[in-house]
């Protein structure tokens, strides 16, 4: 473990101010910072609650290689690779949602994580949507000791953490009471319901953004897998409320493209677009701001991406009210919302109280199955690894779908290997019965 720890830590650098900024000179990371080995890692011991709770942490560069981050998590922190990653986005300041919707979101998020062995990734700071994730653990009566069994990872910007100098230590246990710090404009404290923290540093102070860069790269790395396409992990984004930063995150998940230009293509002047790994997004309608605007747009947008005139006018009015302090114009924000709403293959709107409402956890897992371009056998294998027979029954075995016999044989073998024969029994499917049904 010690050798793994030293090797892992040697791969991470942090940023510090190196050159004084002259008047009128735009500040930049490349010009005004220098890198050095990380100087902050170890264990945070959260104080101020009924029980002390520990979390592993590291300060690392915003541009850290995701492969090195994964090495740290597996070899040093001892985490098992996830079967699913649920990345939660939403408002950064505190907000209220309808009681029933909030409870459904929290219950569904926790159930999806517990039943599938998922990692939950958040912004890590004790405000906004992160507090709703923390409340999910409290509502379920999960003690501080039991929280270690639910992998919650906070990816937070180093530059906005209050009293971050306390965390500068090497392999030490740091006492940290988030409730004891006074108020500071532009700064925040770490949420004590997380077990792991990646504190992203880009040399700035009191600025957000370093965390989003690291988070996006890490999630894309997990979704893509290695160079051979192995170790891919399904990633799904769940959104509650949110401002313009959340809207930008939704847009990035839904519309991320890369351009591949090979020598032959360049010679023939042909460009080919290849999609990055699909990351579906679940938006909770009724939770406020960005979520409600995307949900509203998705309801009225036609197949050509056009609204009725009165709907467009209403949307522009809502945007100007909700995002009155943003430098972008309402039309610019609407353009982003429209691009999001048109991605019906990846976007799911969870509408509480409208007809038959499925649970949030079911919506999350169903979105993963439908939006990941997986074959039917891969989908069945995934539901088996999650041990979610209800999702398999409703998504994979409804409507008389044709199933290859070899896929069912493979599923039976996987069930035996995982000691989950009940999974097949509950599906009420034997190979013989399925064979007769397909004839």
TrEMBL record:
<dbReference type="Pfam" id="PF18139">
    <property type="entry name" value="LSDAT_euk"/>
</dbReference>
<dbReference type="InterPro" id="IPR050927">
    <property type="entry name" value="TRPM"/>
</dbReference>
<dbReference type="GO" id="GO:0005886">
    <property type="term" value="C:plasma membrane"/>
</dbReference>
<protein>
    <recommendedName>
        <fullName>TRPM SLOG domain-containing protein</fullName>
    </recommendedName>
</protein>
<dbReference type="InterPro" id="IPR041491">
    <property type="entry name" value="TRPM_SLOG"/>
</dbReference>
<dbReference type="GO" id="GO:0005261">
    <property type="term" value="F:monoatomic cation channel activity"/>
</dbReference>
<feature type="domain" description="TRPM SLOG">
    <location>
        <begin position="55"/>
        <end position="256"/>
    </location>
</feature>
<feature type="domain" description="TRPM SLOG">
    <location>
        <begin position="273"/>
        <end position="340"/>
    </location>
</feature>
<dbReference type="GO" id="GO:0030001">
    <property type="term" value="P:metal ion transport"/>
</dbReference>
């Amino acid at each position: 473990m010690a050798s793994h720890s030293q090797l892992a830590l040697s791969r991470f650098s942090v940023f510090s101010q190196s050159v004084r900024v002259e008047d009128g000179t735009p500040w930049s990371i490349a010009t005004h910072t220098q890198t050095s080995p990380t100087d902050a890692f170890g264990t945070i011991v959260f104080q101020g609650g009924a029980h002390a709770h520990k979390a592993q942490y590291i300060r690392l560069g915003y541009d850290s290689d995701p492969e090195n981050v994964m090495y740290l998590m597996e070899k040093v922190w001892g985490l098992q690779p996830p079967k699913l990653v649920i990345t939660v986005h939403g408002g950064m300041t505190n907000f209220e949602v309808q009681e029933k919707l909030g409870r459904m979101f929290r219950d569904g998020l926790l159930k999806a994580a517990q039943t599938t062995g998922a990692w939950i990734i958040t912004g890590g700071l004790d405000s906004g949507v992160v507090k709703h994730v923390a409340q999910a653990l409290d509502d379920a009566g999960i003690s501080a000791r039991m929280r270690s069994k639910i992998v919650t990872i906070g990816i937070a910007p180093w530059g906005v953490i209050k009293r971050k100098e306390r965390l500068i230590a090497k392999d030490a246990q740091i006492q940290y009471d988030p409730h004891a710090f006074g108020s500071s404009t532009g700064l925040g404290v770490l949420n004590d319901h997380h077990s792991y923290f990646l504190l992203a540093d880009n040399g700035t102070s009191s600025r957000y953004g370093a965390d989003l860069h690291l988070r996006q790269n890490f999630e894309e790395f997990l979704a893509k897998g290695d160079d051979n396409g192995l170790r891919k992990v399904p990633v799904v984004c769940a959104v509650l409320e949110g401002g313009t930063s959340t809207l930008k995150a939704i847009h990035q998940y839904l519309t991320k493209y890369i351009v591949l230009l090979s020598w032959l293509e360049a010679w023939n002047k042909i460009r080919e677009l290849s999609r990055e790994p699909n990351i579906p997004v679940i938006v909770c309608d009724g939770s406020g701001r960005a979520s409600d605007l995307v949900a509203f747009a998705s309801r009225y947008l036609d197949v050509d991406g056009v609204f009725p005139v009165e709907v467009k006018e209403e949307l522009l009015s809502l945007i100007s009210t909700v995002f009155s302090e943003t430098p972008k114009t309402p039309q610019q924000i609407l353009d982003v919302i429209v691009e999001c709403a048109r991605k019906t293959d990846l976007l799911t709107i969870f509408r509480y109280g409208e007809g038959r409402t499925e649970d949030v956890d079911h919506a999350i897992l169903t979105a993963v199955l439908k939006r990941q371009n997986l074959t039917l056998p891969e989908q069945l294998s995934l539901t088996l690894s999650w041990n979610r027979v209800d999702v398999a029954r409703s998504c994979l075995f409804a409507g008389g779908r044709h199933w290859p016999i070899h896929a069912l044989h493979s599923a039976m073998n996987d069930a035996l290997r995982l000691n989950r024969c009940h999974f097949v029994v509950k599906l009420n499917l034997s190979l013989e019965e399925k064979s007769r049904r397909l004839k």
